[in-house]
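Quick check before the chapter quiz. The format below is the same one you will see on the exam, so make sure you can read both the input and the output lines.
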Amino acid sequence: MNEHTLLSRRNFLKLGAAAVVLAGGGWALGGTSWGRQASHTARALVKGGDLPAEYLRQIIAADNSHCRTIMWQSAAPLDDPQVEFRPAGQSGASAIPAQHDTFTDDGVTCTIYTAQITGLTPGTAYEYRIASGQLAGDWQPLRPDDGGSFQALLFPDSQSNDYSGWRELAQAAARRHPDAAFFVNMGDLVDNGEDHTQWNAWFDAVDGINSRIPLVPLMGNHETYNQQWKVRLPEAYLHEFAVPENGSAQFARYYYSFDYGPVHFIVLNTQWDETEEFKPGLLDEQLAWFPHDMQKNRKKWNIVLLHKDVLQYRIHNRPERTEGISEEGRAFMPLFDALGIDVVFSAHLHTYRNRGRLYNFQPADHGPLYILTGVAGNVRYPGLWVDHAFDKKVAPQPETDNYLTLDASADALEIRCFLPDGTEIDHTALQK
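Here is the expected output.
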């Protein structure tokens, strides 16, 4: 959340045994975030090989029936980097050269590789691997969208001072839902966007998931922080995730959309306060782009993903703080109504709330369903929020981590929320 809507960066709270600072509505963990002593041991899915590559990952594409984006990185440039792919179990393979981008942040230089596989047959099981010169990684599964029903995993903010909890949650969810088609991380992936040790920890946590199914990343406010807890452009995020193109010269990779099965997803960016000093115009550009995107890409179901929430909550011991609609809600909710959006998922407040359907800023029997997704890292705000009048379901208190599943078919959407042990705490269904 924004510092002007919550607490001063200088207010100290306790998180377990660690002292943390609430920074811009999130937690700044003393100086070097979660600790530079954290070891980095993963060498990315090249088991038994010598290929010096790491963090192999699939990234969602605009058209997931025929395309898939593959990324990985290395400490030094690789010779003739490629992605090989083939129908699962067949001999031989097609090869696609990978493009590379050398990137330095937080004093660390790495080379990031990107290749987009095209021409896939919808619903066919494929496998892929990365290669460089005479070296190659292990084959990984890849399954294009078949246009039908699917399940997705949704994870709220994963920012942490110790990413072990995030790892346990993500890995357990992936085991419980082995048929998930992709997973979403709702922004604030890390606590500090410049701290490379945190990015290492985040990637380590999703090891074996990110190579098997694609990621849908959102930019949060914490992706825009430097080591001094000042805002900057989200350099690491923009290099790490080659999301679908949006046609913008100024804000490539900030917002995007994609199709999967009977659903069109719109990923909006709520970080205009953080980026305005460096690149103004993010909100205005999205307000113009969003209707055009919907006109071209509308599906049976249309779902919006955004980081900051649409509601403003009262805060305990802050009588001047009123309940209502947030700045982000005022900007986007009229468009959600006008464009017939079915579901809006948000994050940022680290609490799970199901608001039901809202229209014209009020509860209604029509309009979008609004779900605040909760928290997936170990940063919590115990006893902070006063329940909003629009809240229909609140996570059990005191809150712990949670995740969601989205099951989509031509006739229905089903959304479930689970605690880390798999206990279901909420279930909502929509039908058309």
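If your answer matched, good. The chain is about 15% helix and 35% strand.
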